[in-house]
Q: What sequence folds into this?
């Protein structure tokens, strides 16, 4: 039976026999081979999707939160605090509820997806909806954490990074090696930092013989790491990564430099195209921010990046795209991007016409004509 990321990777994590383990059995998410994307990228390339939306609260945050909340409990904290574009708050409030801790979350007012807000509400978080963006909310929680006896569970809490590195472990365990390329959306940059740390640790312990090339994608209107400066008013439809001053800036740059990787931008239009493509061709529903990795994959593929790498490698390349959050987090976006069906009378002919079902006789007469 799967026992969650702490029990599974205990020797790699800062826990002891005294740590009370708070888990919802996160991790062990599917690594799905995508025939559709492999075909689009080209011959001798295998594209895999690490579907992190399948974690208990619907995003990768649970990997870090199981550890952050367990350690908060161990240190006798009675409340946890975070700023969030939605997923961190959903995860923090669920794990805090399980641990019997209070959770306090600051969210940018009107800028988080409905599903995520409903999670924080139902898990009983005290929510401050602040008239400011995520970066300002993060600055506020840092000050609050200095003034009050609460544990900050944003990814500046090192336990979050420790937990999130298990995503890299799982990918290596599933493939039997590291992928050639690891592609991930980047917002506050904790995740790319954690994933790189995970690969490096597996490498140092001799579990893998090669390290992957780390590739991050930011939304074009919220790309401080690509532009090289803080973005005061970040803009993108991908609200989860609408961040202008990432906390793990240095970690992301180190991952890029040390792995000879890239951090680039994708446009909102490209993100939405990848979002629809994943749903329509792979049957995988993600939230828009998550589709940034696949949008980036397709952008790099069009530029010939993988083709030249493959020629040099003289073998099939493996690429893993991280799909960070579930599509049901943001149903409004799905509904906005596809036309809603009009209500119909309960009539066979009206329904058949509307859904494109031809009558048998007309199908066979067409077939024989
Ligand atoms: N994808 C999703 C779905 C996210 O929720 C986030 C971050 C990211 C990607 C980027 O990860 O910040 O580690 O670079 N969401 C945070 C939150 C900021 O508050 O839920 P990152």
A:
């Amino acid at each position: 039976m799967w026992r969650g990321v702490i029990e599974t990777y205990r020797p790699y994590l800062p826990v002891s026999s005294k740590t009370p383990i708070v888990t919802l059995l996160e991790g062990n998410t599917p690594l799905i081979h995508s025939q559709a994307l492999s075909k689009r990228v080209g011959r001798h390339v295998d594209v895999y999707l690490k579907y992190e939306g399948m974690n208990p609260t619907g995003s990768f945050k649970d990997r870090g939160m199981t550890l952050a909340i367990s350690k908060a409990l161990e240190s006798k904290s009675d409340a946890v605090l975070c700023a969030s574009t939605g997923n961190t708050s959903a995860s923090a409030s669920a794990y805090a509820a399980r641990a019997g801790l209070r959770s306090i979350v600051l969210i940018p007012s009107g800028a988080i997806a409905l599903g995520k807000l409903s999670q924080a509400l139902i898990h009983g978080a005290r929510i401050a909806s602040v008239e400011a963006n995520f970066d300002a909310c993060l600055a506020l929680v840092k000050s609050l954490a200095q003034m009050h006896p609460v544990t900050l569970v944003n990814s500046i809490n090192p336990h979050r990074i420790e937990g999130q590195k298990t995503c890299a472990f799982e990918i290596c365990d599933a493939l039997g090696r590291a992928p050639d390329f690891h592609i991930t959306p980047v917002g506050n940059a904790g995740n790319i930092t954690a994933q790189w740390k995970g690969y490096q640790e597996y490498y140092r312990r001799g579990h893998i013989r090669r390290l992957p090339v780390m590739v991050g994608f930011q939304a074009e209107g919220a790309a401080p790491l690509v532009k090289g400066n803080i973005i005061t008013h970040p803009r993108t439809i991908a609200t989860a990564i609408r961040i202008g001053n990432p906390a793990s800036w240095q970690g992301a740059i180190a991952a890029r430099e040390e792995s000879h990787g890239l951090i680039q931008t994708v446009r909102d239009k490209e993100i939405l195209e990848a979002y629809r493509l994943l749903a329509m061709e792979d049957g995988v529903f993600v939230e828009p921010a998550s589709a940034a990795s696949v949008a980036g994959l397709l952008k790099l593929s069009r530029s010939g990046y993988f083709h030249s790498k493959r020629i040099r490698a003289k073998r099939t390349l493996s690429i893993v795209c991280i799909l960070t959050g579930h599509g049901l987090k943001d149903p409004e976006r799905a509904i906005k991007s596809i036309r809603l069906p009009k209500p119909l009378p309960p009539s066979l002919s009206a329904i058949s016409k509307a859904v494109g079902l031809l009558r048998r006789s007309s199908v066979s007469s067409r077939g024989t004509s």
Strands lie at 31-34, 45-51, 79-83, 102-108, 126-130, 151-152, 181-185, 213-219, 262-266, 317-323. The chain is about 45% helix and 15% strand. The chain has a mean pLDDT of 96. The pocket of F0G is lined by residues 59, 84-88, 155, 185-191, 240-241, 287, 289-290, 324-325 (CB under 6 Å).
